[in-house]
Amino acid sequence: MFHPTPALTLRRCSLASRAVLAITTWTIQAAAEDKKPEPPKPPNVIIILADDLGYGDLGCFGHPTIATPNLDRMAREGMRLTQFYSAAPVCTPSRAALVTGRLPVRTGMTSDKRGVLFPDSKGGLQAGEITIAEALKTKNYATACIGKWHLGHLPQYLPTRHGFDSYYGIPYSNDMKPAVLLRNERAIEDPVDQTTLTDRYTAEALTFIRQNRKGPFFLYLPHNFPHVPLFASSEFKGKSRRGLYGDVVEELDASVGRILETLRELKIDDHTFVFFTSDNGPWLVKRGEGGSAGLLREGKGSTWEGGMREPAIAWWPGTIPAGRTSAELASMTDLFATIHKLADIELPPDVTLDSLDLSGVLTGKSASPRQSMFYYRGTRLMAARMGAWKAHYLTQSGYGGDAPVPHDPPLLYDLEHDPSEKIDVAKSHPEVIAAMQKLVDEHKATIVPVPSQLE
Ligand code: MG
């Protein structure tokens, strides 16, 4: 059999074939110049928010009988944050802070009279506020809000007026009558069947993800549960070892599992940042129907740690290192700046933000830029954190009906040694109290009083 030698092959390249080769090369080069590679798309973003889930309610945060295999896996594949805080101990102000990166005392989304918005409220998040969704729209993100909005139920305040292309959900809490289900700005079910709510939110979320698989997309998925009254679908009801509360949390866990599995199936898991947390602590006065703050003191409504420190898990395979636990200080308000950074968007220049970029913490490359936290109840600054130290100037139980108790000097706790806030060390650390007072004075000087939108 004849095998041409390389030399012979070269000789066979006639002038004609060289010309063809040259033309072909030129055509490829011209096509490449015409069609420059597109810049990489910014990552998809998914925020999953539970309602009233406590710090101690997940398997990966120490609950002994609620089974959360999907969130546990999410934590194994991503990062658990053990010192992550909401910006308020109740729903409306916490959510306002999440979407705007601003403390509720700056946006008017808090009140000393009514803690949250109700179905008879006239107010809501003001049009001038910039939301994460509006920021991401500047980078052509597809945006959807699915779930509990609670930033105003009148049309001018709905998600569709705040940067979301679509909305599906109950615009306030599930215990507020009538609990109505909206699609965009129209009521489609009144009253809503809550037994299938988590499942339907999940189905809507999966449809949105599939439709926007080419990205980039932003999905904000604030569930209505495990806020009381509790409802689970027939698939989950009666299945957990922790009663109906456990059933509800296990159904949320399954929902997270379906979302992460869909991202894997679509092969966009390595291009999607997913963050799971809760809006405030467990509703303890609901007894067995409320959750657990684990080793933290008190719960929802309170500025003790149990009211505002939340379980939090960040996930982005290949970017967030797997299996990490971070005890860095972090706040829900920081999602705003962090997502700006991930999507390469400049922060708004003329807005007072309470938001710091946590991308270095999430990638494991740097310490948290956050060194302080301010704990508000309504417009009152109740406590502050500086590094490991927390000073309580006022204390009040979450739902006990008691009056605020002032403390002078403040109660002082070392949260890294004493996360349960049991050992007041104020007497032995006057220098910490003085430094803390300076921090609080500087912070208060930045607060410009605004009318409450909740009254
Ligand atoms: Mg809540």
Description:
The protein has 455 residues and is an alpha/beta fold. It folds into two domains: 328 residues, Alkaline Phosphatase, subunit A (3-Layer(aba) Sandwich), CATH 3.40.720.10; 71 residues, Arylsulfatase, C-terminal domain. Helices cover 28% and strands 19% of the residues. The protein contains twelve helices and 15 strands. Strands 1, 2, 3, 4, 5, 6, 7, 8, 9, 10 and 11 form an eleven-stranded mixed β-sheet that branches. The radius of gyration is 25 Å and the shape is globular. Bound molecules: magnesium ion. Magnesium ion (MG) binds next to loops.
> What structural category arises from helix and sheet content?
alpha/beta
Mass-distribution shape: globular
**SSE order in H/E notation?**
HHEHEHHHEEEEHEHEHEEEHHEEEEH
Helix fraction by DSSP (H/I, runs of at least 4): 25-40%
Low-confidence sequence ranges: 1-13
* CATH secondary-structure class of the largest domain: Alpha Beta
